[in-house]
Amino acid sequence: MDSNQIEQEMKALVNAPHQFSFENGVIITKVERDLCEGELTVGPDSVNPGGYVHGGALVTLADTVAGCCACSRGGDCVTANESFEFLRTAGGPKIFCRAVPRKMGRTLRVIQTELTDSSGRLVASGTFTFFMTA
Fold first, then answer.
1. I want to staple 65 with a disulfide (CB 3.0 to 4.6 A). Which of 44, 53, 57, 97 is the partner?
2. What is the DSSP string of the chain?
3. Is the pTM of this model over 0.90?
4. What percent of the chain has pLDDT over 90?
């Protein structure tokens, strides 16, 4: 399967109604071999009582984008582990995520993420390990 086909199939699956990430404001915007990008549209359901983007919304964005990166060479995966750092408070209207691999093994893939706000400030980063199921 070529990279354009992988990108189209991944976007069709992830960016569809009734998918957890989509229903929480996350969409995948770019999928290339060993690179994925996505964004969270911040809405009233994605903020904490203090008015900042909820940490769970940031992790959802990062996990979704990282998973797509892990599958950017083909295959399916599930999250096996994650480590995440919240670096500063985040606000909208959008949060952007970029994911690149640290290791692309046959059964385990380790992906690094960086999340930035609409001003380009780094708000969080994380490392995700995925088990390749297919």
1. 97
2. --HHHHHHHHHHHHTSTT-HHHHTTEEEEEEETTEEEEEEE--GGGB-TTSSBPHHHHHHHHHHHHHHHHTTTS--EEEEEEEEEE-S---SSEEEEEEEEEEE-SSEEEEEEEEEETT--EEEEEEEEEEE--
3. yes
4. 94
